[in-house]
Amino acid sequence: MATIGDFDPLNSTVPATKIEVTVSYLDITGCIHVFLFSVVVLYVQGLGTKEWREFGRTEVIDNTLNPDFVRKFVLDFFFEEKQNLRFDVYNVDTRSSNLSKHDFLGQMFCTLGEIIGSPGGRLERTLSGIPGKKCGTIIFTAEELSNCRDIATMQFCANKLDKKDFFGKSDPFLVFYRSNEDGTFTICHKTEVIKNNLNPVWQPFTIPVRALCNGDYDRTVKVDVYDWDRDGSHDFIGEFTTSYRELSRGQSQFNVYEVLNPKKKGKKKKYINSGTVTLLSFKVESEYTFVDFIRGGTQLNFTVAIDFTASNGNPSQPTSLHYMSPYQMNAYAMALKAVGEIIQDYDSDKLFPAYGFGAKLPPDGKISHAFPLNFNTENPNCVGIEGVLEAYFQSLRTVQLYGPTNFAPVINQVARSAAEVTDGSQYFVLLMITDGVISDMAQTKEAVVNVSIHINIMLFLLSSAMEELDGDEVRVSSRGRFAERDIVQFVPFRDYIDRSGNQVLSMARLAKDVLAEIPDQLLSFMKSRGIEPRPPLIPSEALTMRIPLQDKKHRE
């Protein structure tokens, strides 16, 4: 049985977004005989072990070179993880489920993010795996399952609740539970406490319908009424039950509930109730998701800014965060690759502006706090994450690490570009990698506050001492103004150095934690601006509607 103490609103979760992947196959080469009995097998790669495990198979379709498979693959989608997929295609020769007994026709590797992020959610790739042979083309389409995506907003009041406090009335609050199939209850919402009032009116609250009833409109919803006590031993006033279907009727005679206390009812013959609770209002709205915006054409505009100050240490020394080892990536390269390889799936042109700060530049030794890593002031874009890494290493060989460590200039640089995009077509993500020794904290706070109010940009700070900018507990403020949103995600990079030397595992953990907040932050930004996702683009529309390079990427 769930208790009040079981509920933690900060850690309350609902089921992950589910993506349905449809597969079709084109043997455009005509190289396979007409008696083809084809099947596609999906494998997923473990985040830590990197082992491939079979996830599922399509049905077998016979006698066609261009099968459209009816059986779908339904996958949980986690933006913060790189979800590697492998699709193997076989020609089925026998009734055996052992794949080694069938003819291998080819395979394709991709990520779930690549399929979702492709124009119109449609990814087309050539199969490989048989040297010297054309294996045809495999096509994937991704669609988010739309079950239980509504959110409900409701408000309640109560009348003549039992008096529980000796020196006062009662301090009532409501606790909502959804019923489970095994007869237990799971807490899903708790209202605020109304002090010293037997006729309270609670504030309206919003809850996902799937959290309230798991999509079953007739599933029992139990509501307990308590009197708040400072020591946590809240007094039970009574309870009532309802359902989503009953609540959806809105304010009516059907939504006035008697609050009953079973113990009192069993002891007192004249007991009627312990008060009533009335539904004042009920409204249902569609809940947009991260995938809705991505499929509608929203691009993630990823910008990198790297700390080139002397406090990082001499790049020729192993103790430096910039150490240029011939055997493995340094800390900065590891962070860039871990985060960039995931986020690039959601940027169609794969062009990433990349900056450095805190270095002396040739030929005159001028200190810069926002120089393009490729030294092209007209076009700071690098092609793909590999291009960013190449420019980073080239900069290490060219500039002199110096100081001070000023964040504000590069934040404002990106902010100027982001401020030009107000229609939700882009969401700006700035990855700042630093050793944590910041010199312009006041100016940086001012920049963060300005950014949070006017544009859609998130800052990730991988460092050792930057909690002051992380607004999880208290919003960043400057000159009496508070940041509109918590846009700074603080991640201490050294916590992700795997002592066993497993860089792959370290990067996966790092990317997962760094990127976990982006979907919710994007949704928060869009909702605060009243921006709704555009209808999903079909592939031809997506290609013609891509934003020209000179309009999309920022310039100095």
Can you describe what's shown?
The chain has 556 residues and is of the alpha+beta class. It folds into 3 domains: 17-145, C2 domain (Immunoglobulin-like, Sandwich), CATH 2.60.40; 150-286, Immunoglobulin-like, CATH 2.60.40.150; 299-529, 3-Layer(aba) Sandwich (Rossmann fold). The strands form 7 sheets. Strands 18, 19, 22, 23, 25, 26 and 29 form a 7-stranded mixed β-sheet that branches. Strands 2, 3, 4, 6 and 7 form a 5-stranded antiparallel β-sheet that branches. Strands 5-1-9-8 form a 4-stranded antiparallel β-sheet. Helix 6 runs antiparallel to helix 7 (384-398), helix 6 (331-343) crosses helix 10 (503-515) and helix 8 (408-418) packs parallel to helix 9 (441-454). The protein starts with 16 loop residues before the first strand and ends with a helix.
Tell me, rounded to a whole number, the average pLDDT. 81
CATH topology of the largest domain: Rossmann fold
Structural category: alpha+beta
Q: Oligomeric form of this entry?
A: single chain
Q: What distance lies between the first and last C-alpha atoms, to the nearest angstrom? A: 60 Å
Radius of gyration, whole Å = 28 Å
Number of strands: 29
Number of domains: 3
CATH class placement of the largest domain: Alpha Beta
Mass-distribution shape: globular
Largest sheet: 7 strands, mixed
If classified by CATH, what would the architecture of the largest domain be?
3-Layer(aba) Sandwich
GO biological process, one term: cellular response to calcium ion
GO molecular function: calcium-dependent phospholipid binding; metal ion binding
Protein name: Copine family member 9
InterPro entries: C2_dom, C2_domain_sf, C2B_Copine, Copine, Copine_C, vWFA_dom_sf
